[in-house]
């Protein structure tokens, strides 16, 4: 049995789908407050639902019983964040500590954790990720730590200022640094493949898409496909750094830190990884074409 934590999230649902498609039994840890529509999607896939919460150790112990492997994509950010309640410290750090300990105590043999590459600025979400990585490494379980860079579907969306439908794009920093944008669906495929790939055992693997493109190159791709120019707004690094320095809320601090990482660039050389994981990765161009087809 495979346990997926964070199963109602974007990546988690895709992990469940990929496991089901591979013929693997799946149960999903779902919070009592989870969106009923998202739970229904999981049930429609044939996933067994178990109720619990990363902040409730007893529910983690119960969910881990009879489990061979755990895959967790769970995070308080961005959509589940609640100040003082569902935060990077309580959920991403302490909650994941509890999940690792519960899995270890239940005899789980394999643990796959979705993190992200190290970034230059310190911020609560990154601090939590790095702490969990260290705790997992010392757990005694076989582990895989996947560090995908910026998700195409998130960072090239209106939520962070990339509004392709209205041909407007906000770029953080100069927009000239390469980023290996990766589809969340490919991250899910890597997570599932890690269960049976020898190179994934006790490994930390940085993940990116098929090529590193600067945000300005991404805009140019969308402009060619859309057949028109974008209105581009640039947010200077100095302004982002000021936001990061002044932020006291964990989510605001973390988002500013992620924007600084975006401004720094995040190129990932996937040559060696794709030899171990022979997957065909989705490109930014393909994403732009799909977006254009929907308009």
Explain what you see.
- It is built from 12 helices and 10 strands.
- By secondary structure, it is α/β, with parallel strands linked by helices.
- It has a single domain (2-290), classed as Rossmann fold, CATH 3.40.50.720.
- The strands form 2 sheets. Strands 3-2-1-4-5-6-9 form a 7-stranded parallel sheet, sandwiched between helices. Strands 7-8-10 form a 3-stranded mixed sheet.
- Strand 5 (110-114), helix 5 (124-137) and strand 6 form a beta-alpha-beta unit.
Q: Which blocks of ≥5 consecutive residues have pLDDT under 50?
A: none
Number of helices: 12
Whole-number mean pLDDT:
95
Provide the gyration radius in Å: 19 Å
The helix/strand class is alpha/beta
Shape descriptor: globular
SSE string, helices as H and strands as E: EHEHEHEHEHEHEEHEHEHHHH
Strand content: 15-25%
How would you characterize the largest beta sheet? 7 strands, parallel
- What is the total number of structural domains? 1
Highest CATH level, the class: Alpha Beta
- Which CATH architecture would you pick? 3-Layer(aba) Sandwich
CATH topology title: Rossmann fold
Output the CATH homologous superfamily.
Answer: NAD(P)-binding Rossmann-like Domain
- Distance, first to last CA: 41 Å
Number of strand segments: 10
In short:
The chain is 44% helix and 16% strand.
Give the topology.
Elements: E1 2-5, H1 10-21, E2 26-30, H2 36-45, E3 48-51, H3 57-64, E4 69-72, H4 88-105, E5 110-114, H5 124-137, E6 142-148, H6 152-155, E7 162-163, E8 168-172, H7 184-193, E9 203-207, H8 215-226, E10 231-235, H9 237-246, H10 250-264, H11 271-276, H12 284-294
Parallel strand pairs: 1-2, 1-4, 2-3, 4-5, 5-6, 6-9, 8-10
Antiparallel strand pairs: 7-8
Helix pairs in contact: 1-2, 1-7, 3-4, 4-5, 8-12, 9-10
